[in-house]
Amino acid sequence: MALASRARISAAAPAARRTAAAAPRMGVRARFNVTMRTPEGDVRFECGPETLILDAAEEAGVELPFLCRSGTCMGCTGRRVEGCMVQTEQSVSGPHQEQGFALLCQSYPRSDLVIMSHQEHEFYLADQFSGCEAPKTSSR
């Protein structure tokens, strides 16, 4: 009987560790308010600091574009208007992050946020024209 009890405790231990690891750290708010500016209008939902923004939107019934969920297709590109978020290494580069672009499948909130959704096209335009000078016209 003691062996069976020990086996159950051992089997339960990994789940307990996962729960503790997933719990928000001290000093970090448990939930943040996210306002998503979609083509259909503003939508609000909550997102925890350990939940991907795309996942929280989906759980709240907010339909956002995405294809891969791995940070490669760019379909879930959004643009931060207000607030703070962190992104995984599979996200957009530094210059794009400075402009507020983020892959919502790879981003976690760190404060209340306002995000514009459906920004894939704008991301590619910013990429195409960043660092380019306007063509010089001839002075004839």
Automatic annotation (TrEMBL):
> Which PROSITE patterns does UniProt cross-reference here?
2FE2S_FER_2 (PS51085)
Name the domain of life. Answer: Eukaryota
What are the UniProt keywords, alphabetically? 2Fe-2S, Chloroplast, Electron transport, Iron, Iron-sulfur, Metal-binding, Plastid, Transport
Cited InterPro entries: 2Fe-2S_ferredoxin-like_sf, 2Fe-2S_ferredoxin-type, Beta-grasp_dom_sf, Fd_pln
This protein's record includes keyword Chloroplast: yes
Q: Name one GO molecular function term.
A: 2 iron, 2 sulfur cluster binding
Cofactor(s) named in the record: [2Fe-2S] cluster
Q: How is the cofactor bound?
A: Binds 1 [2Fe-2S] cluster.
The GO annotation for biological process reads: electron transport chain
| GO annotation, cellular component aspect | chloroplast
Q: Which residues form the 2Fe-2S ferredoxin-type domain?
A: 32-121
Q: Which Pfam families match?
A: Fer2 (PF00111)
Q: Tell me where it resides.
A: Plastid, Chloroplast
Cited function: Ferredoxins are iron-sulfur proteins that transfer electrons in a wide variety of metabolic reactions.
**Into which family does the record put it?**
Belongs to the 2Fe2S plant-type ferredoxin family.
The record, for PANTHER family, names: FERREDOXIN, FERREDOXIN-3, CHLOROPLASTIC
Q: What is this protein called?
A: Ferredoxin
